[in-house]
């Protein structure tokens, strides 16, 4: 598997980080997990053609995770790629339907199949690539995903407080991509901080953790976050950055 962090930021603009999006490749299959503002350009900058992406997996429907979905669908249509599949939580079909009503010309140009999924369910993204879903804790329904392919496991948390629903998916994973929105000792719900996350990592058997979805509040506190987590976690911990590539 190959991972490209396309966007590691949030809804507030900051230098070097656009909104949420992670590209995961399984053999020849390329799947986009979340598609926030700026992700379409990041796909281009990563060296991937947007027409190679016909599958999007959404963790939840907040704008900074979905803003470029219609942009990607239109870019693909303009390049004569019409078919796409979108996985997402309950409400995804209604959300996309309302967008298509706003841009009715798109209904005639693209063929999008929406498959709504829920915690405890699984699906296949490609031959030999299975996905399991788990609930996060966020201000709207949000899912995390455990992706298994060729003996490797990657877990993507989406937006969430550290919680059992996501960490059960992540036990023994090769790579956990977990949001870490704010620095140590920052009062917070619905998102993660290093001190909230560390207890869940202890004894988890996870090999590597990449922290993403960083608010501007985290600037200057990145090393502090890494050092704090490493005090109790035996695996590797990294701060994700836009266009960072990881191969498993």
UniProtKB/TrEMBL annotation:
Keywords assigned: Hydrolase
Gene3D superfamilies named among the record's database cross-references: Ribonuclease Z/Hydroxyacylglutathione hydrolase-like
One Gene Ontology MF term: 3'-tRNA processing endoribonuclease activity
Domain Metallo-beta-lactamase: residue ranges: 18-213
Superkingdom of source: Archaea
Signal peptide: none
UniProt cross-references to SUPFAM superfamilies, sorted A to Z: Metallo-hydrolase/oxidoreductase
Record keyword Acetylation present: no
Record SMART domains: Lactamase_B
Protein name according to UniProt: MBL fold metallo-hydrolase
Protein's organism: Methanococcoides seepicolus
